[in-house]
Specification:
By secondary structure, this protein is an alpha+beta fold. It has a domain at about 65-160: SH3 type barrels, CATH 2.30.30.830. It has three helices and ten strands. The chain has helices at about 1-20, 30-35, 60-65; strands at about 65, 75, 85-95, 100-105, 110, 115-120, 120-125, 130-135, 135-145, 150-160. The N and C termini lie far apart (about 105 Å).
């Protein structure tokens, strides 16, 4: 019984022993393994292919968020930085907290993206502040320096624009 067991082990392991005894040139070894050196300098710096990819950290996700009023982060599109002349008010929401819906005008055509405006927001290059949202439009107050180097406040009323119209009512 023991004799048969040793013969069986020799028969099974013989092909493997004969493969290791042959030279590299006689085997069909791919050219990748025939070269002695690789282009990898430090293999320990390579990532583990079986590890799950790292999910975005909080710091990365905060880069897409913008700091809004009162330290609240938001990912809503911001209208600030655009000229006041390009802003068209398309809707007003009245109630406890008044809101205005605005779009940007590019050569008479309104953009497809809408912005929510609140009282106290700053708009435009000169940071005109929204002082009031009324049923007919919004009131902006802009602080400028006049020719006498004095502060001067300019009040601008931006009326509601119909979406199909190019000019405000």
């Amino acid at each position: 019984m023991m004799k048969r067991f040793f013969i069986l082990i020799l028969l099974v392991s013989f092909p493997f022993m004969s493969l290791t005894a042959q030279s590299k040139d006689t085997l069909n070894v791919p050219t990748l393994f025939k070269n002695e050196q690789t282009s990898i300098k430090n293999p320990l710096e390579l990532g583990d292919p079986f590890k799950r990819k790292k999910i975005r950290s909080r710091q990365d996700s905060r880069q897409s968020l913008q700091l809004g009023k009162d330290g609240v982060y938001t990912n809503l599109p911001q209208i600030d930085g655009n000229p006041v002349e390009a802003i068209r008010v398309t809707g007003i929401m009245l109630g406890k907290e008044r809101r205005a819906i605005a779009r940007l005008s590019n050569n008479g055509a309104l953009s497809s993206e809408s912005y929510v405006l609140k009282e106290g927001m700053k708009l435009g290059e000169n940071e005109a502040e929204i002082k009031a949202i009324l049923p007919g439009g919004i009131v902006l107050v802009e602080k400028i320096r006049n020719v006498y180097d004095q502060d001067e406040y300019i009040e601008t009323v931006v009326p509601i624009t119909n979406v199909g119209d190019d000019e405000p009512k």
